[in-house]
Amino acid sequence: MNKRVSILLISALIFLFACKVAGKEPSVAGSFYPADENVLKEFVKGLFAKVENRTQSGRLIALVSPHAGYVFSGQVAAYGYKNLEDSGINKVVLIGPSHQVAFKGASVYTKGGFRTPLGTVKINEKNAEDLLNEAADVRFYPEAYEKEHSLEVQLPFLQTVLKDFTIVPILIGSPTRQTFEHLIKKLPEIMDEKTLLVASTDLSHYHDYDKAKQMDSKVISAIERLSFMDTERLLRSGDAELCGGFPVLITIEVSRRVGANTGVLFKYANSGDVTNEKDRVVGYASIGFYSSPFSAEEKQELLDLSKNAITGYVMNGRVPEVEMKNPKLKAEGAVFVTIKTNGNLRGCIGHIQPVMPLYQSVIRNAVAACSSDPRFAPMKKEELKDIDVEVSVLSPLIPLKNVKNIQIGKHGLFIVKGSHTGLLLPQVATEFGWDRDTFLKQVCAKAGLPGDAWKDAELYTFTAEIIK
Question: In this structure, are 149 and 53 located in the same domain?
């Protein structure tokens, strides 16, 4: 090895070591937020001091947070981050759009840390490296981070409210289907109860004040309802704008898989509210995704919705119209409605995936269960006095890797083989006293398949909150 090659090799090793230890230097300190440590600290504390305290039950799984300069969107961001005080969060997955560099897929920063005037935040190197996947175009593109602000501006807020935490930084370029599928599969695996997911995005860009509010209200409603389909539809049609559209869509899907069932708008504003210049504004929102158990009152409301829908349809052929105010019941949900008469099944129909607001799904499936279950004739008026109704709110489907992991009484089963599909709710195995092998045979039968077809079929498990 000649002297020149040795020098180059040593230089490269020094550079790599420096990157591992120091990580990324700030790109927008002094422009998007103050560069002086004390000034920044006081500025952020001042933003938090203006946040109105509010109580929200459940586990905060994710935030949607803006990324403009602090003078424009900092107050909106503070409304979300205020909820992290005393939360015990020790890991934050940051996912945002790449504004400066175009690239295919996603870029995960895997080494060292991110510096701000408030100090260095270490990267959770193991979790970050576990996300890399060449086939899905999930790599480390260091150039994407050189001038990028969408993740960096989140850090001073986190450094103010959290004591000791690591980050997993992800920038999204032009994601492929494989990129999206890989991230929504892998991210839930690192989302334990002390992990927060943050999607960085601003809303509409450079419309007049009234149009911006109109556009933003549509997409905020879709995001609050954790509606992947409605959010994507609004973005595709141009009826709404999110510069972090893909990060938000990924966050909605991952949050659902981790257990989020309701969204809460903490604060909305646009730049016109700050500058009073309302011809060309940018919108900002802070939204939280929570996993929140249904209260006794909410459970009763879901049962009442189903019973009233059944009674109304059987008596006069009409589906009742309901104005729902509870945001948790307006969030999209997958649900089955089961009807029994004198302890015997009389109808059971539902949605496997969340395709509409939960309360609407309950009403629609209650009507279908009493009138359209192919195993039974439509219900008659004289049967109404004998019915019992059960509402099962389903968790997301999880691919089953080993049938030994099936827990009778906890897991439901969904099987897919070719054009055949079948589903059995968790309570069915318990009611019939089935063991695991019988449960597998019965879900095959439900799909019209031989009893051992599960051995080379796609199998999924899910849980359900059963309300009866």
Answer: yes
Does this model's pTM top 0.85? My answer is: yes
Which of 264, 291, 318 terminates a domain? The answer is: 291
Helices (H), 339-463: 358-371, 426-432, 436-446
Tell me what pLDDT residue 55 has: 77
- Based on the domain organization, do 260 and 190 belong to the same domain? yes
Average pLDDT score, the chain: 94
Q: For residue 9, is it within any domain?
A: no
Nearest-angstrom CA–CA distance, 135 and 252: 23
Instruction: Quote the DSSP letter at residue 280.
Output: S
Cα-Cα-Cα-Cα dihedral sign, residues 377, 378, 382, 385? positive
Confirm whether 131 is domain-assigned: yes
Contact assessment for residue 437 and residue 468, using Cβ atoms and an 8 Å cutoff: no
- Which residues, in sequence order, are CB contacts of 97 under 8 Å at separation 6+? 150, 171, 172, 200, 201, 243, 244, 245, 246, 247
Domain count across the chain: 3
Closest CA to 437 of 392, 401, 404, 467: 404
Contact (CB, 8 A) for 291 and 218:
no
Asked whether 199 and 172 are in contact (CB, 8 A), the reply is no
Taking the C-alpha atoms of residue 5 and residue 50, their distance in angstroms, rounded to an integer, is 58
DSSP 86: T
How far apart, in whole angstroms, are the C-alpha atoms of residue 39 and residue 30?
11
Q: Are 259 and 292 in contact (CB under 8 A)?
A: no
- The domain of 330 spans 294-394
* Residue 80: alpha-carbon gap to chain centroid: 16
What is the Cα gyration radius of the chain?
25
| Residue 244: φ, ψ to 5° | -105, 45
Q: Which two tokens stand for residue 38?
A: 């004390």
Whole-angstrom Cα distance, residue 235 to residue 41?
A: 36
Bin 421: left if φ > 0, else alpha if -120 < ψ < 50, else beta: beta
pLDDT in tens, 235-272: 999 999 999 999 999 999 999 999 999 999 999 999 99
Is it the case that residue 22 has pLDDT exceeding 60?
no
Cβ–Cβ under 8 Å, residues 114 and 92? no
Instruction: Identify the CA nearest to 253 among candidates 276, 232, 280, 277.
Output: 232
Rounded distance between C-alpha atoms, residue 209 and residue 386, angstroms: 56
The tens digit of pLDDT for each residue in 111-148 reads 999 999 999 999 999 999 999 999 999 999 999 999 99
Q: What is the pLDDT of residues 77-113, one digit of tens each?
A: 999 999 999 999 999 999 999 999 999 999 999 999 9
What is the pLDDT, as a whole number, of residue 407?
A: 97
pLDDT at 427 over 80: yes
